[in-house]
Amino acid sequence: MKLKAEQLEGHLAGALAPVYVISGDEPLLLQEACDAIRAAARAQGCAERVVFSVEPGFDWGELAQATAGMSLFAARRLIELRMPGGKPGDAGARALSEYAAHPADGDVLLISLPRADKAMQAAKWFSALERCGVLIQLWPPAPAQLPGWIAQRMRARDMQPTPAAAAALAGRVEGNLLACVQEIEKMLLLHGPGAIDEADVMDAVADSARFDVFTLVDGALAGDAARCVRVLRGLEGEGVEPVLVGWALTREIRFLAAVSQGIAQGKKPFALYQQHRVWEKRQPLLERALKRHDLGRWRVLLGCCARLDRLAKGQAAGNVWDELLQLCLLTAGVRIEALARPAMQ
Questions:
Q1: For the chain, N or C: smaller number of CB within 10 Å?
Q2: pLDDT tens per residue, range 99-121
C-alpha cells in the first residue's frame, strides 16, 4: 500500500502494518518519517529494537535468523533494515520476498532506502514488500513550494514569518532541509516566538544552500534564469568540476533534441517518454522545455555543447564557467544573441 508522507501521522494512530518501506534522498524527511514509525512502534508495544545495516558482505541469514525466532525480552520487536545502497542483491531479494510472504507475527520491519528508481520499483522483492506493508516515497519540496513549507515549519514553532521572510530563508537553504530546520531553531532562540521579517532572517541565517548539477539542469529546463545563475555560481564556489556540469547539460540537451526530432517526425511525446523511460513526474518539466525551443534551436544548443566540450579539454579559448552560464541561459530561453553568436560559429 502506498501512502503519502502527509498521511503517515494519521495512519500511525491505528494498528501498525508488518512492514514499512521508507524511500527518499532527503536526510531530514527520511529521519523524521522513521522517527515517527519508531515512536508509534514503542507506543504499540515494540519494546525491543534490532538494527541491521546492509553494507557490502552483509549476511542476509542474520535477518532471517532474527525474524524467525521469538524475542527473549519483548513480545513485539521493531526490526530496522537500513539499505543505503538500495540494492539487496540476489540473496537479499530472496530474503525480503520470503519475509514479505511470511512476516513475523507481531513484529514491525522498517526498511529505509534511497529514492526508489524505476528498476527498483519493478523488482519482485520491492513489489512484495509494498503488497505486504506500507510504502512511503519522500520527495523534498520543489523550489516554488519551499517558502510555504518553511512558513508551515515556523508556525509549528509559534513563529509568524512574513512571506518575504520565508522566501529569504528558502533562498539561503535551498537543497538542504536539515540546515533549514537548524536555522529555524536558531532564529527561535534569537527572537523567540512571534513575528519574523526578512531582516531578521538575513541577520541570523548563514548561506547554507547546497546544489548539484541536476538542480542546475532542472532550473534551465524550467526556464528559471535567475535560479540558473545562482546554482551555477554555487557549484563554481563549491569547486565542482566544470566537465561534470557540462556533461549533465549536454546529456539533457541531446535527449531533448532527440525527442524534438521524434516529434517533428510525427511521433507522440508520451510514446517517446515511454521509449526513453522518462518518469511521469519529470515529463511536465521536459514539455515546458520542448515548447520553448524547436528542433533547430536544440541543434544550436548542441553546437554550444560541442564548443563547451572543446573548451573544457583546453582545445578552445575562453572561460568555461562563462560558457556554462551562457548555455544555461540559452536553454532557459533567455535571448542573448550577442552571447550566443560565438557558440554558434
A1: C
A2: 999 898 889 999 999 998 888 99
Q: Which residue has the cell 515494540?
A: 46
Spell 59-71 as b/e; 16+ CB within 10 A means b.
ebeebeebbeeeb
Question: Beta-carbon neighbour count of residue 161 at 10 Å?
Answer: 25
| Whether pLDDT at 137 is above 80 | yes
Question: Cα separation of 200 and 191, whole Å?
Answer: 8
User: What gap in Å lies between CA 283 and CA 221, rounded to an integer?
Assistant: 11
Nearest to 61 by CA among 50, 70, 52: 52
Alpha carbons 334 and 308: distance in angstroms, whole number: 18
Helices (H), 114-224: 118-122, 124-132, 146-156, 163-173, 177-191, 198-204, 213-222
DSSP state of 7: G
333: exposed, middle or buried (Cβ count in 10 Å: 0-12, 13-18, 19+): middle
- Partners of 79 in the beta sheet? 50, 109
Cα gap 58→330, rounded to integer Å: 48
Could you tell me how many residues make up the chain?
345
Query: Which string of DSSP letters, residue by residue, matches 64-90?
Result: HHHHHSPPSS-SEEEEEEE-TT---HH
Cα distances (angstroms) measured from residue 326 to each of 192, 211, 231, 242, 249: 44, 19, 13, 13, 12
Residue 123 · residue 94 · CB < 8 Å: no
Say if residue 205's pLDDT is above 80. no
Quick: pLDDT tens for 79-88. 999 999 888 9
